[in-house]
Type VII secretion protein EccCb (Mycobacterium kansasii), 331 residues
Amino acid sequence: MMVSASRWAEIRPSLKDQIGTRVELRLGDPADSEVDRRQAQQVPRDRPGRGLAPDGSHMLVAPPGRNGVDMCRHRGDAVAPPIPLLPARVDYDTGQCLAAGQRILLGLEERELQPAAIDFEHQSHLVIFGDNECGKSATLRLLCREIVRARTPAQARLFIVDYRRALLGVVESQHLGGYAMSVRALDAMLPGVVSLLQQRMPPAEVSQTQLRNRSWWAGPDIYLVVDDYDLVTTTAGNPLLAVVEYLPYATDLGLHLVIARRSGGAARAMFEPLLAGLRDFGCMALMMSGRPEEGALFGTSRPGPLPAGRGVLIGRTGDERRVQVAWSPAP
């Protein structure tokens, strides 16, 4: 709706409050201006079309003739360039993904459409939440392959907990420290991991220089990768609680937890000691397609429906980036 009047006072206040865009031409009395009375006095009387824009700057209205319309079209009606969007699928072997170098690649981030990487050196842990078939296991598969690609066996050792065998055969090099596909296998593997962590705890006589350089122990970083975490935590107990006491020292001990869990019941699961400890000590989180009723588990955004492989990567400071996880097929 467009309304014109000789004075602002002629428009009822209830209607005037609903007018979002106001253009003020030369008024009979500049004192009636509701834009800028001083500038209204400078509007010439003998120049039709001259007036004040909403911000108080002077303007000239284009005449309705053909020439004026064409001039406005050429000057201000250029079509804006299309906004680049995340693709529905990013293949792991594309050029953009291969440009990750020594970083642990995750996929493409939406803001700049550049490779998104996981910085395990400054943010030790990653938790992934999502519905079924949203890409949680595929994300773990990609991260395992990236760790193998970017780190030598002397730099990284992976211990994989995979009850549904979605990661079977992903790591077959010397990077693999252990693979647990059942409760019994996990009970056999976990004491070795805990023993390594215990040996790396700083002794009483460690110097400040050694603490600063993390030089009182030598060996590869430990990556404990857990798929379907909700299957590991049962009413009978949670074997992974054995590593909770080492979470405060994870950076010093070279410990990294990468855990994937379904989003159903995630709000309740965040009170579980291991997940609560990870959140308290500032882990990263990848929120994939989930249920809004679970609330904001990390950061401020609630989960919602997303395409497969899509998620919101949340850093320990609360910064959020929407990413498309690179697709790496199963072996």
